[in-house]
Structures are given as C-alpha cells and as structure tokens.
Amino acid sequence: MHSYRTQMQAGRVRAASFSTCRSAHLRIPSAVVRRNPTLERRLGSMMSRIHASSTSTSTSVNKRTAATKVNAVAGTETVEAPTSTTSSPSKIPQRQLTFSEEEVETRFASTTMDRVLTYSTHAVAAGMLVCGFSGGGAAIAAIAAVLGYLAADAASGIFHWATDNYGDGRTPVFGDVIVKFQGHHLQPWTITYRDWENNVAPICKGALAPAAALLALAAVGVLPPALSAFLGSFLGFVVNSQEFHKWSHTTNDNNLPPVVRLLQSCGILVSRKEHGAHHKPPFEGHYCIVSGLMNAPLDGSGFFKKLETAIHERTGVKPRCWNEPDYTFLEEPHNQAWRIQ
Ligand SMILES: [Zn+2]
Ligand SMILES: [Zn+2]
C-alpha cells in the first residue's frame, strides 16, 4: 500500500512490474485522483489485490524452492516432500528427477541375460505363430492372432490394476514388481531411459519357460493351430507391453520411429493421451498398456470396481485407488526396490 500511495501521490501508478495488470503503464494525474474519492478507493482496492496476489505467489515459489535441493554427490537433482503437505493431497517420498549418463548406461542398459531372455521369448512367440498359420486356415489364425492382441491388452490392464492396488514389497513373487509399478507413478520418466531388452526382460523371464512348453505342444500337434496363433500373438504383445508403455511416456516425437507415432495415432498402440489419463486423478482406470482398446469396456462396465468391492467384502482389504494417493509406504525398508529400476 505504501508504494501505491507514494506513486499515486506523484500522480503516476506504474503497473508494469505486476503481471496481473494488463496495461503496461497507468498514468493518472494526482489532481484527478484527489478530486475523485471513488477513483482513489477503487485504485487502492485494485493495488491491494495485486499486492496480495504477488505476496502469495512469491510464498508458493519459496516453498517449492525450499523443497528442491541439489544432490552434489550423485550429480543429480532430487526433490523432497515439503514438511507441510497442506498444498498437496499426495505424500511423495524423495525421488530422482534426472540421471547422469553413467547411471543411464549402468541402470537402464540391457545385459547379456536381458538379451538372451528377450530374443528367446520372441523366437518362441514367432514359432507359435508359424505353427498357427501353417497348421490350418490363415483366416482363422489371423482372427485368433487379433484376439490374442486384444487379450494381451486386457491382461496388461488386469495385471497393472492388481499391482497398483494390492500388496507391497513383501508380497511373494510379485513384491518387486508391485513396488516398481508404484515407483513408476512417482517418477514415470525413468521408463524412457530403458533399452528395449532391459525393459521387457522381466516379463520374458516369467513367460519363457511356460511359453516354450506350449510351443513344444504346438509343434507336435497337441495344440490346435488357432490356439497356437492366439498364444503366439498374446505372448508377443504381452512381453512388449512395457515397451508400448515406454513409448506412451516418450514426449519427444523425435525419439520415436514414425511408424510408432502412426500406430499410436491410430489407437493400435497405446497413445500418450490414453495412458496419460491413468496418471491423472482420480487414478482409478486406464490400466491397459498394449493398445488401450480394452480400457473402455473394462472401465465402462465397472469391471475393476466390482472386483474391488468383491475383494473388500471377502477380505476387508481396500484397493489403493479408494484413497488419496499416498506413496509413503514406499519409504519402508521392504519396499526399496522401486528405487532400483
Ligand atoms: Zn499404474
Ligand atoms: Zn505410465
């Protein structure tokens, strides 16, 4: 108010420093202002509002600045949850925003084992498709392969829903996967650093042995060709679901092959917009990460809601999506695997 009064008495109100004021300069002769009490009151009120807005903006900026620090040892920028959480409903543990080149090369690059698992699983999927298309009618095999593609999308959604909502690092077999899916919500950009083989190898590791057994059955004619085509397609799309997921987080179009951008825009692969809806409130749908085509029937029919209610009625366990996002459980010692990704 002092600065306003000083300037008004000088016959000039400078508004250039306030971004909320549209006029760059507001010049009012002091004699005019003195003769017009209404104008003086209105100008005083306007400047009070501008001052209040400016003070509140700078306070929030200071809060954000206080919550950010540079970790000089790791050479990376990290963010800590502010001590006061009044401005945000979610509780966010410390997370890593950027990675050095060395970290990218060591943490996200594929290993020899990743490549062996990935190429072997793709060879099995290709073998099942060959059995499917060579053992019977190509049209039936093609329909079965399309059904396999849709089933892979639904399976990716059901698995994603389960890991997002239930269990933690102590859950048998899936503990690490569960906390890594939660870690993805905290720092979704890390997936874009991954090599293809590094990204898909964990799923290949679980799928390779049963898939190889099924291929053996298909090769000796125990599995019908249509089922073999279905399973070959299902396997190929399921193990690559994390790669399609990665592409949906790749914000720079130059980092994606044009064919991928085309397939995303056609809805054949999950698009940035479709998967982006999963990362926005109310955080309770859009789980499918192959094409996202099954999101509409699964979310629209209330499939997950009915399942959540049935589980709650039988076990008393509530899914995480029934509450405000709260990631503080990731700070517990048994949930630290989310940081190692
Ligand atoms: Zn999720
Ligand atoms: Zn995501």
UniProtKB/TrEMBL annotation:
Intracellular or extracellular location(s): Membrane
Ranges for domain Lipid desaturase: 149-322
Pfam families on file: Lipid_desat (PF10520)
Membrane topology field: Multi-pass membrane protein
Region annotation Disordered: where it falls in the sequence: 74-95
Family: Belongs to the fatty acid desaturase CarF family.
Protein name per UniProt: Lipid desaturase domain-containing protein
Organism whose genome encodes this protein: Pycnococcus provasolii
